[in-house]
Amino acid sequence: MKVELIAHTPEPEKYIAAAAKLCYSNADVDTLLDGLDEAKTASFLEMLTSIGHESPVEHVSFTFAVEGISRACSHQLVRHRIASYSQQSQRYVSMENFPYVTPPEIASLPEANALFEEEMKRCADAYDKLAALLTEKHCKTFLAEGLDEKTARQRAVKKANEDARFVLPNACETKIIVTMNARTLMHFFRLRCCNRAQWEIREVACEMLRLACKAAPALFKNAGPACVCGACPEGKMSCGKAAEMREMFAKLKSE
Ligand SMILES: Cc1cc2nc3c(=O)[nH]c(=O)nc-3n(C[C@H](O)[C@H](O)[C@H](O)COP(=O)(O)OP(=O)(O)OC[C@H]3O[C@@H](n4cnc5c(N)ncnc54)[C@H](O)[C@@H]3O)c2cc1C
């Protein structure tokens, strides 16, 4: 998998501090950014965290490009509604010889891995055959409607992909761009960096957190699963490894 932070609001911490300053002082628009040095900015961020005033954090956003994750993982990602997404289309892009993600637990068992590979090949063969059959069918229809050969074939291929993709597995790789504001990101990290999250989205979330921390260390100082800066809220489902998690995330944020 590849996760890149491709854009973010410039000087994110300063603009959050400016939003906080506007709330709690008589500063006007012309002087809002004055005096917001590193120390002042950090103290505004600290104050917002301590009183749980989260909305100023919504003014800055971060855009990540993610590739080499499974469709199973991207489906979990897009459940986070307060965000924007653009995902590679399986209608407009042919999935011939589709790449796929093999879960490490499957890869570690030779018998399971062989079965998995066999199934991926079966899906790929079925996809190719369906795409070819449907392309011929649609091509005939488009030609009968009066389209020229080239246009009819181009349209037929796209229309065929639409239905052939129904045999593609959850393991099929995808690419996605995601933009979240910092408040959503904190919420996302709380849920998806947790040991209870599934391994693949957890890997994505941890890498996003590492990159976000590099761009805005003071802002994401306390980000991560809930146990990083408080008690674990998972009750009976808790992994019971809060101390290890704190150590792990402290290391990740310093990388
Ligand atoms: C460990 C784990 C297991 C999961 N298992 C399942 C599962 O088995 N089945 C399943 O379907 N999902 C599952 N999910 C997904 C989960 O239910 C959420 O859909 C997902 O985590 C997105 O979280 P969210 O809704 O808080 O985020 P967002 O959609 O980004 O929303 C952020 C916050 O905005 C508020 N909000 C957004 N929309 C509404 C709304 N319509 N009404 C009221 N408040 C709103 C809520 O406070 C919400 O927390 C699981 C998630 C995790 C982390």
How would you portray this structure in words?
The structure is a single chain. 51% of the residues lie in helices and 12% in strands. With 255 residues, it is α+β, with helices and mostly antiparallel strands. The structure holds flavin-adenine dinucleotide (FAD). The site of flavin-adenine dinucleotide (FAD) has 10 residues, from helix 7.
Write the layout of secondary structure elements.
Elements: E1 2-8, H1 12-24, H2 38-51, E2 61-70, H3 71-77, E3 84-87, H4 104-107, H5 110-144, H6 149-164, E4 173-181, H7 182-192, H8 199-215, H9 242-254
Bound molecules: flavin-adenine dinucleotide.
Flavin-adenine dinucleotide binds next to helix 7.
Query: What is the number of E strands?
Result: 4
| Distance N to C terminus | 18 Å
The strand order across the widest sheet is 1-2-4-3
**Helical percentage:** 40-55%
Which structural category fits the helices and strands? alpha+beta
CATH class of the largest domain: Alpha Beta
Radius of gyration equals: 24 Å
Global morphology: flat
Count of structural domains: 2
User: How large is the share of residues in beta strands?
Assistant: 5-15%
Largest sheet: 4 strands, antiparallel
CATH topology of the largest domain: Gyrase A, domain 2
Distinct compounds present: flavin-adenine dinucleotide
Counting H and I runs of at least 4 residues, what is the number of helices?
9
How confident is the prediction overall: mean pLDDT? 95
Annotated CATH architecture of the largest domain? 2-Layer Sandwich
Low-confidence stretches: none
SSE arrangement, N to C: EHHEHEHHHEHHH
